[in-house]
Design a protein that fits this description.
six-stranded mixed sheet; flat; 499 residues; 19 helices; alpha+beta; 49% helix
Length: 499
């Protein structure tokens, strides 16, 4: 006590203050500045839940036992966590004990890591409802306009190792397990304990350590066999070439680091304030069939139809482009990818091929003619004409143009009038500017989100559960964008009036 009084007197002498003036704040509210973003997050979540009665968190409302943590508490914790690059439930639990901002946000509540983790994996519908409610708020308050949108995909590694199982690997493992089981059973038989296999587990304590070890090994192998049989059945049922045991729904995807087990995350971003309008998890290994799905997702989820939609060459599906442009009357700007190595030749070697409609043939940039050899060849359900160079011998650029001994071959869609007209449409100055602008709209958020998600980007397994994580992080991203583009007081007033 005497030491305490000395410390107080010394601090008062240094600061020139009395004892009452140097006391610590007595409430969490006093610890957070009046314009801190957690105050907005607190009000934002409460308003979204209060104005959307479909967000009804029923789990844990039984009359007996401890009541559940409110939905608002745990959704606030996750949004705060992702904004601060924290997605682990154990680290989030630690933050509830030491982080004043989290203490304020959760009003001092301290859910354990299992409660935090279970909330994320068990409430997919509620989290999706909350996510879409926020996006509708952004539309109503003019943060999302729908005038210009861009769509793109990115690959995220699944929560599993890179070692996939093929049918051959599974059969080899099953043979190995059967041989090991036969070996252990033979040892048991030699030890004259076959009759004891059906005894109660409680009686095993009276047996020798050798017998226990053999029975444990048999039980372990039987579990491995059951798991392998399940994987084999799933491979055959789904018609897959390989499967990842830890996450059977993950597919082999190609990204910048090579081939990974993962998911293709498709997103659409509005150009007005770069807000995410749609972000869905798919198991499609490329983007070629995703354009129409993304447009339909935007319509269904938030009731918007993009007036102008941008995408890269990976979305250049001619049939889907035709559907969106001619039937749905949308302005879609997607560069059509050159087939084969034509783009590479044009860029590096200056070799181009121009179609002559009158002669129904192609001429290359060297003046050589490619004559029609086939009127109709089917490929992936579409009809093509084929043209072959008969004058390639002696051409200086032949070795760079083709390795074929019979001459350069080019295929042309029979019903390609739409593609021809569309390529001409893309050549306008306005559309070329939009193609350049696409990157600035849609690619930034992928990098930001991957940075937030960390070295192990996905914590859950299975397509539906991975979607939960993506919904949470897209909400966190949109909220961070919102507080960056709108003054604190303006947002406070909008949220207070929101209904």
């Amino acid at each position: 006590m005497y030491l305490y009084s000395l410390i107080i007197k010394y601090m008062s002498y240094i600061k020139g203050q009395n004892r009452d003036q140097i006391m610590m704040p007595i409430s969490l509210n006093d610890s957070i500045s009046s314009d801190h973003f957690v105050r907005l997050l607190d009000l934002f979540v409460d308003k979204m839940v209060a104005t959307n009665p479909e967000i009804d968190f029923k789990k844990g409302k039984q009359r007996v036992g401890r009541s559940a943590y409110p939905f608002e508490v745990l959704i606030k914790l996750y949004i705060y966590g992702f904004i601060n690059k924290i997605s682990s439930s154990r680290i989030l639990e630690t933050e509830t004990y030491r982080n004043i901002e989290v203490m304020f946000l959760l009003t001092g509540l301290k859910p354990d890591h299992k409660t935090i983790s279970d909330f994320r994996k068990d409430n997919s519908d509620l989290i999706r409802t909350f996510t879409l409610a926020f996006r509708r708020f952004l539309i109503k308050e003019k943060y999302i306009s729908g005038k210009l949108m861009a769509t793109d995909g990115t690959k995220a590694k699944a929560n599993t190792n890179r070692n996939s199982l093929t049918l051959e690997k599974i059969n080899n493992k099953l043979i190995y397990c059967e041989n090991e089981l036969a070996k252990y059973l033979e040892q048991i038989e030699n030890n004259d304990i076959v009759d004891q296999l059906e005894e109660d587990i409680a009686n095993l304590s009276e047996k020798s350590q050798i017998e226990k070890s053999l029975l444990d090994k048999i039980a372990t192998l039987e579990k491995v066999v059951a798991r392998l049989e399940k994987n084999k059945k799933e491979l055959e049922t789904r018609g897959l070439d390989s499967i990842y045991p830890s996450d059977p729904e993950a597919k082999t995807m190609k990204d910048k680091s090579g081939f990974i087990p993962g998911y293709n995350i498709q997103s659409t971003v509005d150009a007005e304030h770069h807000m995410i309008v749609q972000m869905d998890v798919t198991d499609k290994q490329n983007d070629i069939d995703c354009l129409e799905d993304n447009v339909n997702a935007v319509k269904e989820q938030v009731g918007l139809t993009p007036k102008t939609l941008l995408a890269d060459t990976g979305y250049g599906n001619e049939d889907q482009l035709k559907e969106l442009i001619e039937n749905q009357k949308m302005n879609v700007v997607v560069p059509i990818q050159e087939h084969g190595n034509q783009k590479k030749l044009k860029k590096k070697e200056g070799i181009t091929f121009n179609y002559n409609e009158e002669e129904d043939c192609f001429y290359c940039s060297e003046g050589k003619k490619l004559k029609k050899t086939h009127n109709c060849v089917k490929y992936k359900g579409k009809a093509y004409k084929k043209y072959q160079g008969k004058e390639c011998e002696g051409c200086e650029k032949k070795s760079k143009c083709t390795k074929s001994k019979i001459g350069r071959i080019i295929s042309k869609r029979i019903d390609d009038q739409f593609v021809t007209n569309y390529k001409a449409f893309l050549e306008s100055k306005e559309n070329k500017e939009l193609i350049k602008k696409r990157k600035t709209i849609v690619e930034h958020h992928h990098g930001t989100i991957k940075n937030w998600m960390g070295h192990i980007p996905i914590k859950l397994r299975g397509k539906q559960k991975v979607q939960i994580e993506i919904d949470l992080i897209s909400t966190a991203y949109n909220f961070k964008r919102l507080i960056n583009i709108e003054p604190f007081e303006n947002l406070m007033q909008k949220l207070i009036k929101w209904a």
